[in-house]
Design goal:
By secondary structure, the protein is α/β, with parallel strands linked by helices. The protein has one domain: Rossmann fold (3-Layer(aba) Sandwich). The protein contains 8 helices and 9 strands. Strands 5-8-7-6-9 form a 5-stranded mixed barrel. The longest helix has 16 residues. It binds hypoxanthine. The site of hypoxanthine has 13 residues, from β5, β8 and β9. Hypoxanthine binds next to β5, β8 and β9.
Length: 279
């Protein structure tokens, strides 16, 4: 059942609009985090659609998030990239934040690459490090699947989402192999997600460290949960932009993302090519 006006119905309409505009059947969905939107410059023949033009899409008002969907080919592979994402802290519901993943699903995407800027907690991590997400701790206080059962469910949607293997081990192995070949130092860790937009106190970071978190962010978890509910394979990549719990501003985060965008883009493009051989 797909309730008219429900979130699944809206996602179908949004996907129909995107397909009509672009004529593309993307294989990969990519969500670009704070200051990482310039990766979309690598997409060739890219058609970019402002979020405001896509039916039922929200707008993003956060600096460092352009608010465009860029579709085209990356090393010959059809992709759709979100240049900027929606955040829970902007006042959207978790379901709304994860809505683009439903649209990706309706576009036929089988794999999602989700990226973010994150504060480093693990003492072995340095600013500028790339971290593969191996697991997460959802401390956002909500979940994107809440209430969806009432909204009408597609055949493939599983509300009791299995999160035991949310971050695809095969994709992690491919990424590690690519990093080794390309001489990119790669970290791997557990990502904690808080609602934000407030950064954490040192005491909160000590708590997160004791809980087993290696890095912390204000995003990603809603989209990953939605992807897993729809059986989309997920790879998560964080750029460590600062030491969590130490003085930082959003501008500092954006500056650090910008500083590392070439390395980050090279890594992302490389792993997408490697992953596409496995898809
Ligand atoms: N905390 C939470 N989210 C973040 C941080 C941080 O230190 N840096 C980038 N995103």
């Amino acid at each position: 059942m797909n309730k008219k006006g429900g979130i699944f119905y809206k996602a179908k309409r949004a996907a129909m609009f995107i397909r009509k505009k672009t004529g593309l059947n993307p294989h990969f969905g990519i969500i670009l985090g704070s200051g990482l939107g310039n990766f979309a410059g690598n997409i060739e023949g890219g058609k970019s659609i402002p979020y405001g033009k896509i039916p039922h899409f929200l707008k993003t008002a956060v600096k460092g998030h352009s608010g465009r969907l860029v579709t085209g080919k990356l090393k010959g592979i059809p992709v759709a990239a979100m240049q900027g994402r929606f955040h829970y802290y902007e006042g959207h519901s978790m379901g709304e934040v994860a809505f683009p993943v439903m649209v990706f699903y309706q576009l036929g995407i089988k794999s999602l690459i989700v990226t973010n800027a994150a504060g480093g907690i693990n003492p072995d991590f340095s600013t500028g490090d790339i971290m593969l997400i191996k697991d997460h701790i959802n401390l956002m206080g909500a979940n994107p699947i809440l209430n969806l059962i009432q909204d009408g469910i597609t055949d493939n949607f599983e509300p009791f989402v299995n999160m035991a293997d949310a971050y695809d081990k095969g994709y992690i192995a491919i990424s590690e192999e690519f990093a080794l070949k390309s001489d990119i130092k790669l970290k791997k860790g557990v990502l904690a997600a808080i609602s934000g937009p407030v950064y954490e106190t040192p005491a909160e970071i000590e708590m997160l460290r004791r809980l087993g978190a290696d890095a912390v962010c204000m995003s990603t978890v809603p989209e990953v949960i939605m992807a897993r509910a729809l059986n989309i394979r997920v790879l998560g990549v964080s750029l460590i932009t600062n030491r969590a719990g130490e003085t930082v501003s959003h501008n500092d985060v954006l500056k650090e993302s910008d500083k590392n965008i070439n390395k980050f883009s090279m890594f992302l493009a490389g792993i997408i090519e490697a992953m596409s051989n496995e898809q």
